[in-house]
């Protein structure tokens, strides 16, 4: 697959030239396909070149690195693996970039002081890129399924699904989950539905309601407490969703389940 395509987005030309030189010294592995002085131009070049890696500053004119990353998540193409170059004063923005799916974060002064740091960081991300490509190929080969398939331990989507199943109390935004997985939102949405047979929202709601059913039948928690534990703190909204999916509200469901359990005890 090498050489891998790399894009550099940095508003300071001298720094941009230094980064380019650092990367091109590893020309058997990396090829710089484009450079930009702001996020708007960087976004345009990403659409054109579809780079494997994006090395970007955060604070830039016209469109900053964060805005560019947000726009990248909306494209119908895979997100590049992103290496963020930042100053100390940009730390809160760097945290935001990590939330949006950035793979690595380097301080500019460290990068400029250590000639091999940037290239070595990109090298460490190659296995992640190869894993993503492998997972995408597996995804394209498989028909829609109702549950994750065992035997695909490196499948990015199965990893996402396991995380969703592990904790339904969290609030999940598809765009954020997609970015963390390294995909644009439209591409992620299509892959998710191909894997589960459901939209992201449908799947999350099913997991929340399934967890609620378990808590209703195995605990004495009140409805509002259960709603909170399954990530739906507005218990009225929780009741509405529960009734829409099961045809009865949580209280009625508990009564029905209790009667069935008591009937089974009598029969035994």
UniProtKB/TrEMBL annotation:
PROSITE patterns on file: HTH_ARAC_FAMILY_2 (PS01124), RESPONSE_REGULATORY (PS50110)
Pfam families xrefs: HTH_18 (PF12833), Response_reg (PF00072)
Origin: domain of life: Bacteria
Domain HTH araC/xylS-type: 158-256
Residue span(s) of domain Response regulatory: 5-123
UniProt KW keywords: DNA-binding, Phosphoprotein, Transcription, Transcription regulation
SMART domains reported for this sequence: HTH_ARAC (SM00342), REC (SM00448)
Xref: InterPro entries: CheY-like_superfamily, Homeodomain-like_sf, HTH_AraC, Sig_transdc_resp-reg_receiver, Tscrpt_reg_AraC-type_HTH
PTM-bearing positions, type 4-aspartylphosphate: 57
Protein name, entry field: Response regulator
